[in-house]
Amino acid sequence: MVDRGGSVVQLMKAMGLSPETVERVSQLWGKSAARNGGRRHLLLGHLLDTAAVAELMWDQFLSPAFRQRLDEISGGRGRLWFMWVCGIHDCGKACPAFQAVDSVEAAPVLAAGLNWGRLPTDRRKMWRHDVAGAALLKPRLVAEWGSEESAAWVWPLVAGHHGVFPPVQGIEPRHREVQGRGPAWAEAQRAVVDVFTRAVGFADLADVRPVGALKKAEQLALSGLIVMADWIASGGRVGRGLADAGLVSLDEARRSMAEWWAGLRLRGGWRGLPLPRTRLAPLTDRLAVIPRPSQRELVERAWSIPVPGLLIAEAPMGEGKTKAALAAAEVLAARFGLDGVFVAMPTQATSDPMYEQVLRWVRSFDPQLESQVALLHGRRRFQASWRAIWEGKPLPDGDGEGSDGAEPNCARGDAELGTASGFDDFGAIEEDADFGMVPAERPAEGLSSFDADGPAHWFLDTKRGLLTAFAVGTVDHLLHAATRTRHVMLRFAGLAQKVVIVDEVHAADVYMRQFLVEALRWLGQARVPVVLLSATLPPAQRQLFVNAYLSGVLGRADVHEPVPQSAGYPCVTLAYGANGRAIAETSREAVHSWREPIPVELAWLPDTEVSGARVAEAVRDAVADGGVALVVVNQVARAQAVYEELRAAGFDGQLHLLHARLCAAHRADRTAECLRLMGPQAGAERPERMVVIATQLAEQSFDVDADVLITDLAPTDLLLQRIGRLHRHSGTRRPEAHRAPRVLITGVVAEQDGVPRFLGASESIYGRWSLLRAAALVAESAGPLTAAGASHGARSRPGKGWSIPADVPGLVSRAYSDDEICPSGWREAEALEEWRAKELEREKKAEEFLLCRQREWAAPTLEGLHYAGSRAATQEQLDAVVRDGDPTIEAVIVHRVPGGYRAYDGTWLGVHGEVDDDEATDRLMGGTVRLPARLTSPAVEALRPLPGWADRPWLKYRPALVLEDDGTTLLGAHRVSYDDVLGLVVAPA
Length: 989
What we know:
With 989 residues, the protein is of the alpha/beta class. It has four domains: 8-264, Hypothetical protein af1432; 282-405 and 436-586, P-loop containing nucleotide triphosphate hydrolases (Rossmann fold); 600-830, Rossmann fold (3-Layer(aba) Sandwich), CATH 3.40.50.300; 890-988, no CATH class. Helix content is 38%, strand content 13%. The strands form six sheets. The chain has an eight-stranded mixed beta sheet with strand order 5-6-4-7-8-3-9-10, sandwiched between helices. Helix 2 (19-27) packs across helix 12 (183-200) and helix 23 crosses helix 32. The N and C termini lie far apart (78 Å).
């Protein structure tokens, strides 16, 4: 051990390095003045800065569990080892390819005697410092550690710190000149590693050798933490670099980085959570609920699981699963040393109210933790509480549920800078430009408040959001961490220190499910507790998720551990590893739902017309004597048509329309209004007569209570989710005619031979097989399907109805079983074959983007992880990776008027669309609307941001949908308009 108090020059002299080597190392630069605020910063200074940041992260950011793992593999020296592995990342900058990038900075290096010949100018042959670092470090680690195995998992951490992990062949330079030739370069490169190693506190490089190895998923998390430390250290030297090696020391780095860290307000979450005082205190004390049996079961299972593992909670809609999951997360975090929670929701619309719930929950631990709760989606600006907290303004009155109801895909304003690259593109580009990092001293996303006790704006970048201690977002953010994309390690590092909760896990289609399965493998190997929630989970999916998590735990791709039959519904399934064995358990005793089963009457309403006339007639009949009706259809145009039919007929009652093509402000207002009038707290405000016409937005996580449901046919599990909005809240007053819950199933008619014909949009979305199965199950209760025009008021024969929630697991199981349940004439086998072929095609399509190929899952290191290059340069491209289907874009509605433009609500914008302040920006962005997929190509070709938006961070990437004097515009072969009630209207030109 050496004295670390002196400068690196003193240390080099004490190590006996020659004066020439001391001078050469003292001139190697790490940050050029041109890119560092006018101040050069030496390479050793940057390495020590990063080590100093790592030390701060160890003390104030890393979870107890991850610190323990680093202690285990380093022989109890985790703190020191973490400092070393973070700081050594840029040792590859000690090579000609990097030092020659800036001619001004290169001059003193050349003058010190570090020369180079002609370097290649072809980008395919250029040499980047991340791989250069691996190339110079790998042979030394093998030689001085005496172990190829020990070195094999460490050098990729250096090679991958710019976002991609190359194969071992990728760290062999094609031209020797780029890495440095001759004894002068060899001595300087060796000295950089040795001097840094001694300055940090190790005796020599051999002393650094780990006594064990992290698992591959843990390596990925560590890699993300290295990137985090690097980026923070880089930002901390902008405008205050050190060009004199005599001033560079670990102590100086500690002082500077501590000041920078404090200014950024970075911290972890709980920082060591004590065990709850009683087993049910997380429910009774923290969340103030009287535990229902299903909630009690989940929390008890969190106490009983012996090691971090997977918990799958299945319980009826409205059972309180998410609160139970938060309580279970507290238990799991306290028992296993996790430092936060990520809650993944199916959509942005469901993320906003969940953010409010998590915010209240986190405040119960410590009110100051509210600034550590992130909302991760592209329209979070419209969430009132998030905006208030992150801008340092007073919180809104009430719950602040400014739900925008947006779709999961983020807008172009969240675009990540930079471009994807393959391994033939290792040009020596300085890192700030390379990863598109916004200078750290600038407030992100236009936020300007820097209260000392406020939130850490550093986390607002789209790649960094999951690093916040507590985060709520769409499931996409979890899936992104399972994609072979640049900087995937940052996303995974954020997950690896948390408990992960995924709500409505059944909502993932077969394409998204491939990424969910991949994420579960990595989380299982990283020993991250995961809680999956669903009311309607098919048994095959439950088994798939268990196998995936256990594959990660055991490090094998072929694990299959049968899940035992549950004693009933609700139930909790556990999956974990113990002594090298895979274990799957489920609830051994029946767990009763908090409410008694309710018989739900089903009847057919044969209709496949987009016009909606027949549905509108049924709605009028259903609420003729009062009541609240929910209409859920599978097509925006059909929802608009039903609304227009009712409006034209002079419907006497409240009428609401909710779908995906409303602008953000209208959708937020209507969602909030529906929740107010139909939610659990509605009480006396519940209208006497009301109809809500919606698309699939109302299918799940929409806490409303309807007296009667009219719905297009959907796959059985989704149909049950829609039924979950029916008679949902106890104590709701209802008209006598609606004492018993009733469902009319439409969107389907019988052909002459009795075979179902489905609404075209439904078959396009869901496929014919799943709809046939659903129709067969409904027919068992509602009687045979009839042709269009049959009376909707009566069934052809009495039916037994469905008992909800008791029948839910059986219905879902039968819907996705191998048993034939359709009448022979329905050609079910043919539909099944077509469905399987499409499902397989979608699975194969997803495989192109999965983080790891199945045959390479057991590989022990990250070497070659990005085997086919790094995909997805922007947020929209990243969203497209994890969601199948035609791409869509969002645009901001503006009206062209004499002398300039106005926002959708009439706000004056200026001659070129200029926006004067944040309030006007908010009003303008309230007009953001998602265009249907058929308009994507013409929109990409024709739409651009207005010139006046160039200096507005939230607007400069967003295309404007400019409506002319007549309120319309042409996009390709379509005429597009926006109606304040109907939303976006698309018609043939």
